[in-house]
Amino acid sequence: MTQEKRSTSxxxxxxxxxxxxLLFGLVAAGVATAGEPLRNEPIKPIPxxxxxxxxxxxxxxxxxxxxxxxxxxxxxxxxxxxxKTGGVDRQKVSTGIQGRKGNIxxxxxxxxxxxxxxxxxxxxxxxxxxxxxxVQNPVEMGSQWANVLAKLYDDPKYPGLFKEIYPDGxxxxxxxxxxxxxxxxxxxxxxxxxQYLRGDESAINEQERQGYELFKSYGCxxxxxxxxxxxxxxxxxxxxxxxFKQRGNIQKSDMGRFNLTGNEMDRHSFKVPSLRMxxxxxxxxxxxxxxxxxxxVDIMFKFQLGREAPDEDKEALVAFIKTxxxxxxxxxx
Amino acid sequence: MKKIAGxxxxxxxxxxxxxxxxxxxxxxxxxxxxxxxxxxxxxxxLQALDASWSLATLQAYTxxxxxxxxxxxxxxxxxELRNRLATGDLSSDEVxxxxxxxxxxxxxxxxxxxxxxxxxxxNFAVVRNSIKYLPLASQTLTARLRQLGDQEQAQRITVIFDxxxxxxxxxxxxxxxxxxxGLSKMNEELMSFPEEIVNPLGNFISHARVLVERKIQLNxxxxxxxxxxARKVGDELISLYKSYHEKAREKALAxxxxxxxxxxxxxxxxxxxxxxxAFLLWLTARQFDGRLEKxxxxxxxxxxxxxxxxxxxxxxxxxxxxxAGMGNMAATVAHEINTPLGYLDSNxxxxxxxxxxxxxxxxxxxxxxxxxxxxxxxxxxNARLENFGALVQNVKEEAMLDELPEIIDDMxxxxxxxxxxxxxxxxxxxxxxxxxxxxxxxxxxTSALKMxxxxxxxxxxxxxxxxxxxxxxxxxxxxxxxxxxxxTNAAHAVEAAGHDKSSITIKAIEQKGHILVSVMDTGxxxxxxxxxxIFEPFFTTKDVGKGTGLGLAIVRxxxxxxxxxxxxxxxxxxxxxxxFTLPVKRHPEAE
Lengths: 333, 591
Hints:
The complex is a heterodimer.
Chain A: H1 2-28, H2 54-64, H3 77-80, H4 127-136, H5 145-154, H6 158-165, H7 172-185, H8 192-197, H9 206-217, E1 234-236, H10 243-247, H11 258-261, E2 269-271, H12 293-305, H13 311-321
Antiparallel strand pairs in A: 1-2
Helix pairs in contact in A: 2-7, 4-7, 9-13, 12-13
Chain B: H1 2-27, H2 33-62, H3 69-72, H4 74-87, H5 97-147, H6 151-169, H7 173-188, H8 198-227, H9 230-273, H10 278-312, H11 314-374, H12 378-398, H13 404-429, E1 437-439, H14 441-452, E2 461-465, E3 472-474, H15 476-497, E4 503-511, E5 514-521, H16 528-533, H17 551-561, E6 566-571, E7 575-583
Parallel strand pairs in B: 2-4
Antiparallel strand pairs in B: 1-3, 4-5, 5-7, 6-7
Helix pairs in contact in B: 1-9, 2-4, 2-5, 2-9, 2-11, 4-5, 5-6, 5-8, 5-9, 5-11, 6-7, 6-8, 7-8, 8-11, 9-10, 11-12, 11-13, 14-15, 15-17
């Protein structure tokens, strides 16, 4: 009951914030000067801190790295989403239990809390809901929750940790909640580009700045925008020219959101991926077909923007995209 | 005797205890009042969120440099409320189907809003890019073809580009067909173009095709966002839920009273059976009576509190409806303004790049002038002049000088369209009244006819009958506008019908202290469904750029302010008659 009360008052607060935001937006439009933060940009900096429950984060971290979540105790979340390597495994598709291959490129776990939905096709609405996917997917962890919970019960370290946070102890929803809370903590603030947005003009060089201007003028920004530079909308892959006609061998995983909705307009429609960690997370695209950032940029020009651009511009774009990755203590420099 | 009385007393107490025990559950105060208030609050919050969500979406649509984080940020909150309502006690078995159905409909509306917003974001991104890209691509392609001496093919591309603009201005089936046919013809003959432009031209064609598809979807999704309104269904849900809840409470109360009554009867029976313990039993019954009264008083008070709470929430409701109204208004205005704006924007880009080339030419000219003054060698002078001439020719082609007047004309038209929208808006929202005086309605008709002249198809027969009318007191300018709006509508209706013998008839008579003015046309007529909405602000059946949906709302506002009324009679296929009345006050000079 108290929780319900709190959330309704949160709704009100959010509405007020929304109204205040409108006013602020009007006042702040176009007044950025040297040393001042750039406010009227379609990309916003990631906040330097995020509010999370530290106890849940600690428990979530243990679970995230625990292979007991998989059927044969070989695969943890971190196996495919290694924090050391940008939150991915840098494979075209990941390898699950018993060497089974996945069917879609693993996206980074970093900043996943900033995305409006989870998975390439957006089928999970929250991070909590997302956890069910890999744990039960036969080519990923291939587990059943009852077995996972039984293993956690038998592990001496878990019952106490859970009891401390959740009065009802080791429950499926609590495991998901702890992992989700940990994932919410995995933001990468203070990128060089965010420093630039916050007013430090020397944080990026001339080519990178040029790249940002091109990113806006070529129209990349129409989809890759907001705090995560992506991750707040869906778009058809092959928006102007058909990607799949050219690539061929169309799989179910290429249908995107169409698999969920059956709506013709959603055929080949995917969640626009965040570009925040792009510098560290090759290969690219849902099928992992672009080995380098430059290849990904080429494909985007050809099929999404439907236009040509000189090499020089594309190189500036790559240089800009590399300024977007921020910091996290668990990441290797 | 005493022993029997003792046994009877014992029996009575045991029986009474059993009675109480059996009914104890029914005697407990009812739960559910809190859950009820929370459900109502959730529904209201979801209504309000839905309205703000639409607004935020329309704001992203109309704000340059916008991102979709704000729009996406509504998702978790909407989701939470939706889940709570879908899984809460509003969906339990006791709730009648009518309420559950309405709840489902309400939740489905917010789900389909979510879907429309997703479609909007995706379509908007693509349309925005294509609208920006097409003018530049068309310009580059035609300039290159002209350089290659292929005027004819260059002209074809210009024609296609003009058709995309025509489609953007007025995305109806005609402009769409013309564009798509031109595109597929050009696509078939793609290989007849010089090799170096085959790829860029292919992209140009793809963009134009995508634009057709996505622009139509974009308009539909924006329209859905603005019109799918959870408020009305939410209000209906609340009133259904309220009446169900009150009935359920009454029923529960009646059951409780019945239980009390039964208990009393039993107690009384037992009291008679236990004569000796009559006194004790009487005492028990008294005590019970007291509790009954107290119970009834408590329930009455709760009902009164609930009623007070319900009336307190009226303020929120008004807020919701004004938000939704703003949503509708913002949508229409955005819709009306965005098309010419997009057009202005792309034309400005063409002008801009043309101007850059002109500037280049100017600076070239300045150096040339200086060189000519200093150089004596006539051969060198001739060579320079020739170079300059070639440059001028090149700039003339690349800067599209020939097309400048047309481009500027189009832009002027765009500006006029926007002015039209803002004028209508101003008229509609104007609070102050224009000067009041005694005036002649006949003169108003004459001048309104003159002003609406260009809207009336030339072959239309105009009849007026305005004899012997007393002067009216009010604002002649406003009545002029009323007449002009009605005549313009009549003219559009007649034009749309396209009969050979069409006419507009304007009559005015005095009747029972009122002047009745009627504007009758032989147009298409208006069906009943449209008639019921026709005076609502922002309701329009006309295409984008043709009507703001404010005309008749303005008519009604002005006539009502004059103390009159507006009526409409219409037969589909025959025509429409708009009648408004104005009260006659006796003119001082006439007495």
